[in-house]
Amino acid sequence: MKLVIVSGMSGAGKTIALKAMEDMGFYCVDNLPIPLIEKFVDILSGSDERMRKTAIGIDVRSGSELPKLRDVLSELDRRQVSYDILFLDASDKVLLKRFKETRRSHPLSKDGRVEDGIREERKELMWLRDKSRFVLDTSSMLTRDLRNQLEQIFSGDQGFRNLYVTVMSFGFKYGIPEDADLVFDVRFLPNPFYVDELKHRTGLDPEVRDYVMRGEDGHVFERKLEDMMDFLIPRYINEGKNQLVIAIGCTGGKHRSVTFAELLYAYLSGHEEYGTRIDHRDINRS
How many helices and strands in the chain, by DSSP H and E? Predict the structure, then answer.
């Protein structure tokens, strides 16, 4: 039997995660009353093959019963029942934005402010986050990114280590991304903007990429950047970091930064220890 408890912050993507896991063959139950979890596990142990992979959604909607989850998990540990905990998280800023976009009320905000509900929820769930085997920060994820991560986690890959790397191109004229962990400036490279036939193209075009990488500087920087990632990322994993945003900037975010973001993404996406995605923030700006 494979049992996964899916929890996390409201608005972080738990519903999407449960639907994705259902597509992967899990029998999914959302918001199961906590006092029923042990009995449900007993039922699963004698169930047919269809329920041998089960995901249970638990969150703050459990209300006053939520603290009882500690005792339930302790009992499962005592009985040597194998289970994993998947915790979905996101920054407070992103969660607030999602609630405003959907015009939903936070389950803990009552008639008050959503910010207060998020703050209280984070306090109540901190212990569960710390106990979780898998923690996914969905702040920069699209739905397909979350699905890809879940497939990587639950497809038998025991080497997954929680870290999700976003490689982002951007233009300095529009500001440095607020969520960037590492920022690299590639404005020292040849600028295709001043070449008429390349000006309105982007770093996704081979002609632009060839222009940016002409000479030795681009290739030297590429090797040094890859060496730095080989050094840093395993250490971030060991420290328990679950979200890393690498921002690469040029003046407008269309040519040089896009070229190098694509090169770095291609290099990092070959590694199985972490998930990767790419985001060209300013490529469509005029």
Answer: 10, 9
